[in-house]
Task: structure prediction
Amino acid sequence: MKIIALEEHFLPQHLADYWEPSVAGMPKVTYDRIKRRLFDCDTLRLEEMDAAGIDLAVLSVSGPGVQTEPDAALATSHARRANDELAGKVARHPKRLAGFAHLALQDPQGAADELERCVRELGFCGALINGQTLGHYLDEERFFPFWERAQELAAPIYLHPADPERTYAALEGQRLLRRPTWEWTVETATHALRMVFNGTFERFPGARLILGHMGETLPYLLWRLDSRAMLYREPGDPRPLPSGYIKRNIPVTISGVYSDEPLACALAALGEDNIMFAADYPFEDPQVAGDFMRAARISESVRAKIASQNAIRLLKLPA
Result:
């Protein structure tokens, strides 16, 4: 069985300063282990992919990358340099590595152009975006040119968690609840729901927004989202309910959630064609992820779809 992993991080040296605040407070032994693996796209990464039975990893810049840079020109330059560096890594291991573009969304038109360059010239599969950009979210009108280009290219956009612009009041002082434990889930799910409720997928029906972590809790909430949307919408509104857009436009990966119960929920809510594998390397253990993929309580046909077939179709990867 071929396994393709979609949320696999690396870190160019010139973007390391942007990354450091996102791991503040992490124990040094954990920090050292992760940082070493973010910089290594050749020896250690490939060895651990082999051990976990992962055939192909789609690499992306570990967040937040240039999205916290206030100078748009500098952000654009850094993003282009990161993409060229990633293209070089993929070229060294074309059967093991692929790439998601890193984009400076401070300039949405420039980000659209860079996405097109990365897809058409560098052979990337789409892009990965690390949350909000200087307080701006992807449903805003300023990003319409970007979504128009992504739709034209049929390039899926992976929305990866990152810090909100300001810490939620309820999380102030709650170190163990911040970032990946809970804060990023709330922030990323809210970001995606802004796109659902504010018409992004009605305006751009061909857009595809990938969510990790088994859909950031959204598969569990479809009935509730529809029920509350009906409470507030005008009678006779012909538009699909929120669940319709989520099922059509938001495929998910299993990154960082290796448990049968949430997988069963995601499959029941979204369907077997909308779930894909990810190991979230190096923040999760790829061996745990690979072992779960092989042992999950699902049929072999569904296993094959999640492990690679859905990714091959959506990202237009070679079979």
